[in-house]
Amino acid sequence: MLLILKVVLCLVGFVWGRGRDKTLRFNSDRTFTILQITDIHYGEDDFKDFQTSQLVISLIRKAQPDLIVLTGDAVSGYAWNGDPGFFFNNWARFTSPFTITNTRYAYILGNHDGEADLTREQIFDLDSEHPLSLMDKADEITGVNYFHEVQSSYDNATAPPSILWFFDTNREGCRNETWSWGCVEDDQIAWFRKQSSLITASNKNTFDLAFFHIPLQEYMDLWYDGETYGEKNEDVACPRVNTGLFDVLAAQGNVKAVYVGHDHDNYFGGFWKGVELIFGRKTGFGGYGPAKGMLRGARVIKLTEYWDKDELKVKKNDWMLLEDMSIEDNTKSKSDKKAEKRQTECALPNRPISHFKLVIMLILGFVLLSLAVGFAYSRCKSRNSQQLKLGDI
Predict the structure, then answer these.
(1) Distance in angstroms (rounded) separating the CA atoms of residues 255 and 167
(2) pLDDT at 117 over 70
(3) Is the pLDDT of residue 392 over 70?
(4) Beta-carbon neighbour count of residue 155 at 10 Å?
């Protein structure tokens, strides 16, 4: 089945004439548009998957993006029933809107994507075969991480004005802390620092964006201590360990904005120490959320390149495109943050139970059940004895 699909995809790519060309470029009107969709959660319910596909197609046709960025949890791996082909079938479903609209996409893995019958490596092997996929993988570091340059539309430009970075925040566990959401690990940060330094050594003016699934701890700081737009409807579910990624991004200076998903009910953003931190808008009908009164949707990110004297620069604007096709701008947050209890720790996944603790719990459960059965039996026996004595009288 996988071989047949690869052949079909190759033929489709040949017909479209785009094949394996992964070059991104600003348009002749000097703009480049990205549609960020997130947490579409296929695999839980066929009708919800259908609704999500219809919504994504509508969002694409309305926004007319040059690139779709899917920031994780495309598939609800926890819904896997054990049958083979689960991820493959849902991958075919969630990529169908990209195929139908002939739109290239960059897929980032979330914490749930690799919980079914394919590992993260196998997901990369599968998705990278799609003629519209820009998924790539840096060698010898944790997860699936990559970047793509967006070339200029100006003939006299000597370097790409913008670079898009895609990080894998993995599943659960960060450094040596097992009870945590996943994170961008130290070797991934070292990879970014090295690659970024090589690029900025010859081009110091790139306007870069970073995309990943699980938010940074700094999103909590932003909400309570920064100027924000949008709303926070749930605790930020970030890694328990701060690996210093934000500090590296801020120090390098080229990444101007970070886009994440993961928290289905949050859609706030704002500037924190010179870097704009932004939640995407939950797109899919699968999974929990969105919050009451909150429509599904996506973020539209519009980059515009321009000359400022002798320097090629980029400016950014973004907004939310909602499921009713209305636009929601980044208006100032209305929540009364001073009255809100401050979140000081990341919302964490359910705490894992060790095998030893599990065995102890099972033993205790068996002992308690045995005691309860014994007590019930003795009460019943005592009652029967009393009834027999009354019968003798």
Answers:
(1) 13
(2) yes
(3) no
(4) 5
For residues 213 and 257, give the distance between their C-alpha atoms in angstroms, rounded to a whole number. Answer: 14
pLDDT in tens, 134-147: 999 999 999 999 99
Helix/strand/coil for 103: coil
Find the radius of gyration of the CA atoms of the chain: 26
Note the pLDDT tens digit of each residue in 297-319: 999 999 999 999 999 999 999 99
Q: Does pLDDT of 13 surpass 90?
A: no
Q: What is the DSSP letter of 215?
A: P
DSSP letter, residue 242: -
Amino acid identity at 112: H
- Nearest residue to 308 via CA among 196, 198, 163, 207: 207
Residue 118's CB is within 10 A of a number of other CB atoms, namely 22
Of 281, 229, 232, which Cα lies nearest the Cα of 36? 281
Rounded-to-integer distance, Cα 391 and Cα 393, Å: 5
Tally of CB atoms within 10 A around 353:
10
CA distance 187 to 376: 59
- Beta strands 31-37 and 297-308: pairing type? antiparallel
Q: What is the torsional sign of CA 318, 321, 327, 333?
A: negative
pTM metric for this prediction: 0.87
Backbone dihedral angles phi then psi of residue 310, each to the nearest 5 degrees: -105, 10
pLDDT band at 380, cuts 50/70/90?
A: low
Q: Looking at residue 354, what DSSP letter applies?
A: P
- CB 167, CB 211: distance < 8 Å: yes
In whole angstroms, what separates CA 258 from the centre of its chain? 12
Q: How far is CA 246 from CA 85, 142, 182, 190, 257, in A?
A: 37, 18, 15, 13, 11
128 neighbors 91 (Cβ within 8 angstroms): no
Please work out, in degrees rounded to the nearest 5, the angle formed at the alpha carbon of residue 390 by the alpha carbons of 386 and 393: 145
DSSP letter for each residue of 33-59:
EEEEEB---BTS-HHHHHHHHHHHHHH
* Among candidate residues 280, 242, 214, the one with its CA nearest the CA of residue 59: 280
| Dist. CA 90–CA 286, nearest whole Å | 12
Helix (H) or strand (E) run with residue 149 in it? strand 146-151
The DSSP-derived string for 65-101 is: -SEEEEES--B-GGG--S-TTHHHHHHHHHHHHHHHH
